[in-house]
Amino acid sequence: MFARLWxxxxxxxxxxxxxxxxxxxxxxxPFGVTTHLSLFAAWLYWTGLMAWGWLVSRFIGPILEHKLxxxxxxxxxxxxxxxxxxxxxxxxxxxxxxxxxxxxxxYWPTLYFLIWIISVAISGVSFLEKRAFRPKEANDxxxxxxxxxxxxxxxxxYAISSEDHxxxxxxxxxxxxxxxxxxxxxxxxxxxxxxxxxxxWWVARQSVDHVKREQGRIFLILRDETAVPxxxxxxxxxxxxxxxx
Length: 245
What we know:
Blueprint: H1 2-6, H2 9-28, H3 39-67, H4 73-98, H5 108-133, H6 142-145, E1 157-163, E2 166-171, E3 174-179, H7 182-188, E4 194-198, E5 201-204, E6 208-214, E7 217-222, E8 227-230, H8 235-240
Helix pairs in contact: 2-3, 3-4, 4-5
Protein backbone atom coordinates (compact mmCIF):
# COMPACT_ATOMS: atom_id res chain seq x y z
CA MET A 1 0.00 0.00 0.00
CA PHE A 2 2.77 2.44 0.93
CA ALA A 3 4.60 1.57 -2.30
CA ARG A 4 1.51 2.53 -4.31
CA LEU A 5 1.23 5.81 -2.43
CA TRP A 6 4.91 6.57 -3.04
CA UNK A 7 4.35 6.26 -6.78
CA UNK A 8 1.95 9.19 -6.53
CA UNK A 9 3.87 12.40 -7.33
CA UNK A 10 1.70 14.52 -5.03
CA UNK A 11 2.26 12.12 -2.11
CA UNK A 12 6.03 12.09 -2.68
CA UNK A 13 6.11 15.88 -2.72
CA UNK A 14 4.05 16.10 0.49
CA UNK A 15 6.22 13.46 2.21
CA UNK A 16 9.38 15.38 1.32
CA UNK A 17 7.84 18.62 2.62
CA UNK A 18 6.81 16.93 5.89
CA UNK A 19 10.32 15.60 6.43
CA UNK A 20 11.95 18.89 5.43
CA UNK A 21 9.73 21.12 7.58
CA UNK A 22 9.87 18.64 10.49
CA UNK A 23 13.68 18.66 10.31
CA UNK A 24 13.80 22.46 10.09
CA UNK A 25 11.54 22.85 13.13
CA UNK A 26 13.71 20.33 14.98
CA UNK A 27 16.80 22.47 14.43
CA UNK A 28 14.97 25.73 15.18
CA UNK A 29 12.99 24.41 18.18
CA PRO A 30 10.45 27.25 17.92
CA PHE A 31 9.63 28.92 21.22
CA GLY A 32 11.90 26.41 23.01
CA VAL A 33 9.24 23.69 22.92
CA THR A 34 11.66 20.80 22.36
CA THR A 35 14.89 22.11 23.90
CA HIS A 36 14.59 19.54 26.71
CA LEU A 37 14.47 16.64 24.24
CA SER A 38 17.20 14.76 22.42
CA LEU A 39 17.67 15.65 18.74
CA PHE A 40 15.97 12.43 17.58
CA ALA A 41 13.06 12.83 20.01
CA ALA A 42 12.60 16.43 18.90
CA TRP A 43 12.61 15.27 15.26
CA LEU A 44 9.95 12.66 16.02
CA TYR A 45 7.91 15.34 17.84
CA TRP A 46 7.89 17.87 15.01
CA THR A 47 7.76 15.42 12.11
CA GLY A 48 4.97 13.47 13.80
CA LEU A 49 2.93 16.63 14.30
CA MET A 50 3.51 17.61 10.67
CA ALA A 51 2.38 14.16 9.54
CA TRP A 52 -0.73 14.45 11.72
CA GLY A 53 -1.51 17.85 10.21
CA TRP A 54 -1.08 16.46 6.70
CA LEU A 55 -3.36 13.49 7.46
CA VAL A 56 -6.10 15.74 8.83
CA SER A 57 -5.75 18.14 5.89
CA ARG A 58 -6.46 15.25 3.52
CA PHE A 59 -9.93 15.08 5.07
CA ILE A 60 -10.77 18.72 5.74
CA GLY A 61 -8.96 20.15 2.69
CA PRO A 62 -11.60 19.04 0.15
CA ILE A 63 -14.35 20.35 2.45
CA LEU A 64 -12.66 23.75 2.68
CA GLU A 65 -12.08 23.86 -1.07
CA HIS A 66 -15.78 23.25 -1.64
CA LYS A 67 -17.05 25.67 1.01
CA LEU A 68 -14.52 28.39 0.15
CA UNK A 69 -14.47 27.90 -3.60
CA UNK A 70 -15.22 31.54 -4.40
CA UNK A 71 -12.53 33.32 -2.39
CA UNK A 72 -9.00 34.26 -3.35
CA UNK A 73 -6.03 31.98 -2.70
CA UNK A 74 -4.69 34.38 -0.05
CA UNK A 75 -7.84 34.28 2.05
CA UNK A 76 -8.28 30.54 1.46
CA UNK A 77 -4.86 29.79 2.97
CA UNK A 78 -5.35 32.34 5.76
CA UNK A 79 -8.59 30.66 6.87
CA UNK A 80 -6.98 27.25 6.39
CA UNK A 81 -4.12 28.28 8.73
CA UNK A 82 -6.61 29.23 11.47
CA UNK A 83 -8.46 25.93 11.15
CA UNK A 84 -5.26 23.86 10.99
CA UNK A 85 -4.02 25.58 14.16
CA UNK A 86 -7.27 24.54 15.84
CA UNK A 87 -6.65 20.96 14.70
CA UNK A 88 -3.01 20.91 15.83
CA UNK A 89 -3.70 22.55 19.19
CA UNK A 90 -5.33 19.56 20.98
CA UNK A 91 -2.74 17.21 19.47
CA UNK A 92 0.11 19.23 21.00
CA UNK A 93 -1.71 19.50 24.34
CA UNK A 94 -2.08 15.70 24.37
CA UNK A 95 1.51 15.00 23.32
CA UNK A 96 2.87 17.38 25.93
CA UNK A 97 0.80 15.65 28.63
CA UNK A 98 1.98 12.19 27.52
CA UNK A 99 5.58 13.40 27.59
CA UNK A 100 5.14 14.59 31.16
CA UNK A 101 5.15 18.31 30.37
CA UNK A 102 1.47 19.34 30.60
CA UNK A 103 0.61 22.82 29.38
CA UNK A 104 -1.01 25.02 32.07
CA UNK A 105 -4.53 26.14 31.18
CA UNK A 106 -3.52 29.79 31.51
CA TYR A 107 -0.94 29.27 28.74
CA TRP A 108 -3.39 27.76 26.22
CA PRO A 109 -4.27 31.05 24.42
CA THR A 110 -0.58 31.85 23.99
CA LEU A 111 0.14 28.30 22.80
CA TYR A 112 -2.62 28.50 20.21
CA PHE A 113 -1.23 31.79 18.92
CA LEU A 114 2.25 30.29 18.59
CA ILE A 115 0.84 27.25 16.77
CA TRP A 116 -1.06 29.58 14.45
CA ILE A 117 2.14 31.49 13.63
CA ILE A 118 3.76 28.22 12.51
CA SER A 119 0.61 27.29 10.61
CA VAL A 120 0.68 30.66 8.83
CA ALA A 121 4.30 30.04 7.79
CA ILE A 122 3.47 26.59 6.43
CA SER A 123 0.33 27.87 4.69
CA GLY A 124 2.45 30.66 3.24
CA VAL A 125 4.75 28.10 1.64
CA SER A 126 1.71 26.36 0.11
CA PHE A 127 0.35 29.71 -1.08
CA LEU A 128 3.62 30.68 -2.78
CA GLU A 129 3.92 27.21 -4.32
CA LYS A 130 0.38 27.48 -5.69
CA ARG A 131 1.10 30.92 -7.12
CA ALA A 132 4.40 29.79 -8.63
CA PHE A 133 2.90 26.83 -10.46
CA ARG A 134 -0.41 28.43 -11.43
CA PRO A 135 -0.69 28.67 -15.21
CA LYS A 136 -0.16 32.15 -16.62
CA GLU A 137 -3.40 33.98 -17.15
CA ALA A 138 -4.60 34.25 -20.74
CA ASN A 139 -7.21 36.57 -22.15
CA ASP A 140 -9.13 33.89 -24.02
CA UNK A 141 -9.66 31.17 -21.41
CA UNK A 142 -7.08 28.90 -23.06
CA UNK A 143 -5.45 28.12 -19.70
CA UNK A 144 -8.62 26.34 -18.60
CA UNK A 145 -9.56 24.93 -21.99
CA UNK A 146 -6.26 23.05 -21.99
CA UNK A 147 -7.42 21.18 -18.87
CA UNK A 148 -10.54 19.72 -20.49
CA UNK A 149 -10.20 15.90 -20.77
CA UNK A 150 -9.39 14.76 -24.30
CA UNK A 151 -12.57 12.71 -24.74
CA UNK A 152 -14.75 15.85 -24.53
CA UNK A 153 -12.26 18.55 -25.51
CA UNK A 154 -13.33 18.76 -29.17
CA UNK A 155 -16.79 20.00 -28.16
CA UNK A 156 -17.85 23.53 -27.33
CA UNK A 157 -17.65 24.43 -23.64
CA TYR A 158 -21.10 24.63 -22.04
CA ALA A 159 -20.63 24.93 -18.30
CA ILE A 160 -18.61 23.97 -15.24
CA SER A 161 -20.04 23.11 -11.83
CA SER A 162 -18.51 22.16 -8.50
CA GLU A 163 -19.07 18.68 -7.08
CA ASP A 164 -17.32 18.30 -3.72
CA HIS A 165 -13.67 19.16 -4.50
CA UNK A 166 -14.05 18.31 -8.19
CA UNK A 167 -15.37 20.27 -11.17
CA UNK A 168 -17.72 18.81 -13.72
CA UNK A 169 -16.98 20.15 -17.17
CA UNK A 170 -19.84 20.03 -19.67
CA UNK A 171 -19.23 20.36 -23.40
CA UNK A 172 -21.25 19.47 -26.49
CA UNK A 173 -19.40 16.12 -26.40
CA UNK A 174 -20.45 15.19 -22.86
CA UNK A 175 -19.10 15.79 -19.37
CA UNK A 176 -16.20 14.73 -17.18
CA UNK A 177 -14.62 15.55 -13.81
CA UNK A 178 -11.31 17.22 -13.00
CA UNK A 179 -9.73 18.07 -9.64
CA UNK A 180 -9.85 21.86 -9.33
CA UNK A 181 -11.44 24.72 -7.38
CA UNK A 182 -14.23 26.64 -9.10
CA UNK A 183 -12.62 29.98 -8.24
CA UNK A 184 -9.38 28.94 -9.94
CA UNK A 185 -11.25 27.72 -13.03
CA UNK A 186 -13.14 31.01 -13.32
CA UNK A 187 -9.88 32.93 -13.02
CA UNK A 188 -8.42 30.90 -15.89
CA UNK A 189 -11.55 31.52 -17.96
CA UNK A 190 -11.04 35.27 -17.77
CA UNK A 191 -11.77 36.70 -21.20
CA UNK A 192 -13.93 33.76 -22.29
CA UNK A 193 -17.54 34.70 -23.07
CA UNK A 194 -19.20 33.29 -19.99
CA UNK A 195 -20.24 34.21 -16.44
CA UNK A 196 -20.67 32.76 -13.00
CA UNK A 197 -24.40 32.38 -12.47
CA UNK A 198 -24.53 30.57 -9.15
CA UNK A 199 -22.22 29.76 -6.24
CA UNK A 200 -21.53 26.40 -7.87
CA TRP A 201 -21.96 27.19 -11.58
CA TRP A 202 -20.21 29.00 -14.42
CA VAL A 203 -21.89 29.02 -17.85
CA ALA A 204 -20.64 29.86 -21.35
CA ARG A 205 -22.97 32.32 -23.10
CA GLN A 206 -23.01 30.31 -26.33
CA SER A 207 -24.39 27.26 -24.49
CA VAL A 208 -27.62 28.95 -23.32
CA ASP A 209 -30.66 27.89 -25.31
CA HIS A 210 -33.27 29.85 -23.39
CA VAL A 211 -34.21 31.30 -20.01
CA LYS A 212 -36.89 29.68 -17.85
CA ARG A 213 -38.70 31.28 -14.94
CA GLU A 214 -40.49 29.09 -12.44
CA GLN A 215 -42.07 30.12 -9.12
CA GLY A 216 -39.86 33.16 -8.81
CA ARG A 217 -36.69 31.27 -9.71
CA ILE A 218 -34.61 31.71 -12.84
CA PHE A 219 -32.96 28.87 -14.76
CA LEU A 220 -30.69 28.90 -17.78
CA ILE A 221 -31.58 25.98 -20.03
CA LEU A 222 -28.49 24.84 -21.89
CA ARG A 223 -28.36 23.26 -25.33
CA ASP A 224 -28.06 19.83 -23.74
CA GLU A 225 -31.23 20.61 -21.70
CA THR A 226 -29.34 21.06 -18.42
CA ALA A 227 -31.25 23.46 -16.16
CA VAL A 228 -28.75 25.73 -14.41
CA PRO A 229 -30.08 27.77 -11.45
CA UNK A 230 -29.38 31.51 -11.35
CA UNK A 231 -28.91 32.82 -7.84
CA UNK A 232 -30.11 36.23 -6.72
CA UNK A 233 -26.51 37.22 -6.07
CA UNK A 234 -25.52 36.90 -9.72
CA UNK A 235 -28.85 37.77 -11.38
CA UNK A 236 -28.22 41.57 -11.57
CA UNK A 237 -24.90 41.10 -13.40
CA UNK A 238 -26.49 38.62 -15.82
CA UNK A 239 -29.39 40.98 -16.45
CA UNK A 240 -27.00 43.87 -17.09
CA UNK A 241 -25.07 41.71 -19.55
CA UNK A 242 -28.27 40.90 -21.43
CA UNK A 243 -28.44 37.23 -20.52
CA UNK A 244 -31.92 37.38 -19.02
CA UNK A 245 -33.64 39.43 -21.71
